[in-house]
Amino acid sequence: MQLSADLTPDALEAALPDRDVRSYVALVSTGSAALGWANSGAPDGAVVVADHQLSPRGHAGRPWTIAPGEGLGFSLVLRPSLPAEREGWLYTVVLSALAETCGEAARIEWPDVVRREGETVAAVGIKIALGAGRVDFGVVDMWLPTAGPPRAEVIGAVLEAIESARAAPENVVIDRYQRACATIGRQVRVRFLAGTGPVAEGRAVGTIEDGALLLETATGRHAPVRPQDVRGLEAA
Description:
single chain; BirA Bifunctional Protein, domain 2; SH3 type barrels; 2 domains; 5-stranded antiparallel sheet; 5 helices; 25% helix; 33% strand
């Protein structure tokens, strides 16, 4: 078993110059490998790529399928300058960048998916390590199930869009995100991860600087719901 031609070290070096990259034929998950690397000092922007992942997981532990030559899965280490309470901002940055990369018809489904014409074209899971009141690092796991060769160039385009979003003013990123977000305007029911609260329901009216979705409740109150606390959401 060997790496597909479009994910060899040479192909990745050409598409991702001057970036720390580790590539593998197969891993249990790139997220686990990237997390270990981040804990031992991986720099901001480091990338882990595998042609095949045995047990990749997305947001809230949802299983993904990444087989050799079919779609694309990789992980990115970020070391942002963010206070701990704003860890969810990384979802806004990454999803807005993925939506941009996936084309004008791409629509974000808060908190973790990008769809185009009803088909999932990207999904995200983010693991955060917190330091003393700040984000120490984040490991962003990305899945693009429909991506085809040359996939190293797809990774390069995604990373370029993420870096652009990280450098942009926050209000610009929020505006781009909200214009691409299909969730806004819908009546939704949010299901939380165990131990983080009851089910919440309301009309999604926007997002804010910590990545939270604002729900307008039946009483007219705007309640923020943060992506890292959520298992998923459904139509109410």
